[in-house]
Amino acid sequence: MANPTVLNPPMLTETPTARAREKGSDFAELSRRITAEGLLRRRPLYYTLRLGTVGLTLAGGVAAFLVLGDSWSQLFVAAALAVVFGQLALAAHDLAHRQVFSRRRPSEAGGLLVADVLLGMSYGWWMNKHTRHHANPNHEQKDPDVAPDLLVWSRRQASRAQGPARFIGRHQAVLFLPMLTLEGLNLSFSSFKALRGPAVKRPVLEGTLLVAHFAVYFGGLFTVLSPGKALAFVAVHQGLFGIYLGSVFAPNHKGMPMIEEGRQLDFLRRQVLTSRNVTGGVFVDLFMGGLNHQIEHHLFPSMPTPALGRAQVITERYCAELGVPYCRTGLFASYATALRHLRSVGEPLREAR
Question: How far, in Å, CA of 254 to CA of 110, rounded?
Answer without folding.
Answer: 29
